């Protein structure tokens, strides 16, 4: 049989790659999550997880840390994005660029820099939860600024004038024009900060002195000992990730801060 | 006027806080002391240590080579994949698009755990191969996502015209389709490089134990600091500074030259 070249066939290697290294590994996780040590189908991990208060409280702590990080990041980032978006400065993109440039420095080195400062200030090991949240805010701030800036700068300036003409003061204009129109950016930024805050355990390890266990770390601790429980927690995390992605209207790749390459 | 000053002050303050840790380390990297605190004499000893330590040089080399290898492979696989997907039947396209999103949305730890367990379960020991595969899983979906929009934008009658004028499908692909999507391919490649350079979690799950990248080396040095002294840690000051300066030059140069046309459009290329 002569294989005729067509553009479609170009997709085959990637399709095979996706099956081997994305779909099959996910199925393997599902398999381990729902089997016991004898590899029989069972809900034992599911039951063990939801009946163990320490496991549940770890998840709750992790969610609280992620929510606090997201809230603080939003509060800091919104004014920055708003000021930059409304600024009439000529070369304001350079400023914006300065806000995202740290993202390209290796993130472990960035966390290490903060760790050195915290150690110097005598805070390392003293305020583990505070340090963890501080580190995450520091690390993920550009994730929030960029989508906010993108949506805020798209708002038509005449809407502000219209609001003023109709008698709105700057406060009502902000709450009734700016905030509603920037919601896509807010949601996108929140997802992009919330998800790594639950899983990126490098920050919590290095700054929380390994005393803070977020879900990502929790999975890691089971990797060497109990694949079944590890896989179950990974699945639960996956459910949380999917839920928050759906809740916020999906991941928008145009807002991905890494998409800002040259 | 006061309002304007306040705004400038706020933006400046956040920017300062964002850069403070790195700038502080940069200042100390030119000093003889090994821990932050009272300064001593000017010294380049941290740089001498950085560039004189074979282990550190090796892990820097590892990081760069891995990023280039993984990004190149991801770019080829992802570009071909995107073209294949784009011209496939709708169902195939939707399906591949959906699977392509999995590693993008998924937490890295879940991707890493799934890969690592699968490798162990089928008896494949961790090697450079598994590490490259891990990085390709991380990077390829982003290449696909940056190539697909360019395919959507291009004029498809050009390809038909090439065929009508006697070009083979292969030739038409290389002479007509590829040149149109080059910007997407380049940004996909750059994205892949930065993702790979920055990665810690997938690397730590897929790498052979003797292999280190900047991320795993620095993490291990700070967390399991028993074999490492303050001197190793302070050579990271020099490393941070060197990387910071390189990034600053690259980012500013690239954006200042290629930007003239589209001022005021934000950094979304």
TrEMBL record, chain A:
Location(s), subcellular: Cell membrane
GO CC annotations, alphabetized: plasma membrane
Main location: membrane
Top-level taxon of origin: Bacteria
InterPro entries: MetI-like, MetI-like_sf
Residue span, ABC transmembrane type-1 domain: 59-248
Keyword field: Cell membrane, Membrane, Transmembrane, Transmembrane helix, Transport
A Pfam short name: BPD_transp_1
One of the GO biological process terms: transmembrane transport
Topology in membrane: Multi-pass membrane protein
Protein name: ABC transporter permease
